[in-house]
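Input chain follows. Return structure tokens only.
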Amino acid sequence: MTSERHTVEHDLHEALSGAGCALCALLARSVRRAIDALTYEGVTDVDVRAEIRAARGLCATHGVALRQARQAFGAALAYRAVLGEVLRDLEALPTTVPRGLRRIWRGARRTPLAGRRACPVCDHIGEMQRIYCEGLIQTLQRPGGREQLAASAGLCLPHLRASLASAGDAATIATLRSTHLARYTMLAAELDEFIRKRDYRFAREASGSERDSWVRAIETLSGAPGLHPAATIDASPGGSS
């Protein structure tokens, strides 16, 4: 067993024992580590600064995470370099487009001042999601893994989608399906109870586990912010609109 694989298994074992989606918890930690690395390496590593410049800074969500990290010096150096690129882009920006090129410009949907690459933290999170999804599938294929998932809080919908896409055998897909049918059905029942108690006839009844079900429903169906690619939409004729 490689050291990296052992680390992934250990991380998953701990995260599945915690509250909420295990992959959200692990990826949130990955974001924090990536931000810390960027602010440190942004001072010392030329290649890292070049990545941030090429992306024209981090995306809005990870920009907030960078601000919250309060690594002022590293952020200032990185974003001064980004601002220099944006200023050069602005200076070079044509104020008119030749008539013959307008159709080409619009057809290519070229966005003025766009970066040349995606947010580096988004790229990192995408890679870590792949690693953890594959690790989860391997965990489910080993003794005790399915029981551990069944005893956990389950996955959010975005990470359930990603895990199903990584699963390569019917037994693993069946485990993911049955576990989350049970978890999501329980959550739906708690939401029903929460809604029922908002009726004035039952408003005096004491609140139970359903009191925060609406929060857990949002977390379950949307996942944690900044940890997911855009939602997949079924555009087929039978898909949802």
